[in-house]
Amino acid sequence: MLNSKENIQLLISHLSRTENIFTKRKNQLITMDGFTEKNILIFHQGIIAGCRPGDDRLLVNFTAPRIFGLNQFIDTTLLYFRACTDISYEFLALSEAEKIINEKNLWETVSINHMLTIANMLKYINNMSGVSSYALVIHCLYQLQAEPDIIRLRRTAADYVVDKSGLSRSTVMKMLAQFKSEGKVVLSKGWM
User: Fold this and answer.
1) Which of 8, 46, 99, 152 is most solvent-facing, going by the fewest CB within 10 Å?
2) Helix axis angle, 157-165 relative to 133-146, nearest 10°?
3) Containing structural domain, residue 163
4) pLDDT level of residue 94 (50, 70, 90 thresholds)
5) How far apart are CA 168 and CA 66, in angstroms?
6) 94 domain-assigned
7) pLDDT above 90 covers what percent of the chain?
8) Are residues 140 and 124 in the same domain?
9) Is the bond leading into 65 cis (omega within 30 degrees of zero)?
10) Pairing, β 22-24 against β 47-52
């Protein structure tokens, strides 16, 4: 059985068309709205931030390869994407993707992609919703530690926690100062 990354790569190899691949530079945005028909979004390479449009909250940083938009019941306008590094990506009409998936019998691979997406959503909800500010900051710090160097070394701990949690900057700064004085975290000029 293939692991999740191999499954996604297998699906992408069947859906992708080299002539449809675009690139974006760091900090540029990608949205899935503005099309006349539903599309899927395939990320080929790079690190991408998934953000909520309503409040620009950072929901997740992920490394390509990834596919979004295969689930017809999830509104694709719930996220916009920001390139954390230079990235390559492509759009494909959902109807065309479904045709290829049917012809190549790739529904198992699609279901694994859905399971990965749902698992990530549940992990986010479990760790970020309905928890105390203390637990939220701790979780964000653990997430920051797990981020790739390109993310971790370019953002202060406070900036990351504020973007990820939605807590006020003053609350986050007080908690970080408390954690530092208690020896729970080592910060140097805001960097972990």
Assistant:
1) 99
2) 120
3) 133-181
4) very high
5) 31
6) yes
7) 53
8) no
9) yes
10) unpaired
